[in-house]
Every structure is written in C-alpha cells, then in structure tokens.
Design a protein that fits this description.
This protein is an alpha/beta fold and 131 residues long. It has helices at 7-23, 77-90, 106-118; strands at 52-56, 62-66, 73-75, 96-100, 125-126. It is elongated, with a radius of gyration of 20 Å. The chain starts with 6 loop residues before the first helix and ends in a 5-residue tail after the last strand. 14% of the residues are buried.
Length: 131
C-alpha cells in the first residue's frame, strides 16, 4: 500500500482545534478591572500597536504594561510618571490608554491622568466596555 492514511491526523487536528477554541477565552491580558459599560467609538487599529496602558483596580492599585501582550507591573504614581516619561521620550507617537475600574473615585482617576500629562502624554484614551 503506497498511500498514507491521513484520517487520524485530521482527527487529532480537530481535537486540538476544539481545545484551543475552548481555552482561548480563558486567557485574559493585563489586570482584571471592572470597566464602565458605555457606547463609544472603537479606536483606530494603528493606535493599538504597542500602546502604553495604565490600569487602575478598585482598590486604587496602579499597573503599567507596554503593549497588549505583556502582563502589567504594579507601580506607584511617582514611578508611573517616571516610566511613562521614559516611554514617551523614546517614542513620541505612543498611544496612552487608561483602564480604570468604574467604582473608583473620580479624583483618583484625574490624579493619574495628570501624572501622565506631566510625563508628556498629549492625550489619554479611556478604555470602556460595550454595554
């Protein structure tokens, strides 16, 4: 017999496909934050290339990650300003986004936005979820 039976390979491939489809939603990036649910316009895909994302949890903890795939590292507000200034100085066109928990005090969010402005960010995008 000179033919290769590919049916077992197809079966294995389909099983792997199902496993990846089931486990893919379980992998979330960054810090778990309960975002506000509002209708908003989507961001340009060009801005999403390697952005500077600052996340604020409900307890006020700050996390910084550089790009969509990296896990955030916890920082203080002073360290945030210092790190953001270095990133913005190196890449002036970097997109800066803020993911803040909807239960946070407005004043705390403004403090972080002010620190990002002092670091040189021309604009700060707010990340929300669709309702």
């Amino acid at each position: 017999m000179s033919e290769i039976n590919v049916v077992p390979y197809i079966d294995v491939m389909l099983v792997l496909l199902v496993i990846f489809m089931v486990t893919a939603p379980l992998f979330t990036q960054g810090v778990e934050v309960a975002l506000p649910k509002v209708d908003s316009e989507p961001v340009d895909q060009a801005q999403l290339e390697d952005p500077l994302i600052v996340s604020m949890k409900a307890d006020g903890a700050l996390y910084v990650n550089l790009g969509p795939s990296e896990e955030g590292s916890r920082v203080t507000i002073d360290a945030l300003e210092h790190q953001a200034a270095k990133v913005i100085a190196a890449r002036s066109d970097v997109a800066v986004f803020l993911r803040a928990d909807h239960r946070l005090d407005y004043g705390r969010v403004v403090e972080v936005m002010t620190a990002l402005q002092r670091a040189g960010a021309m604009s700060v995008g707010l990340i929300t979820e669709a309702p």
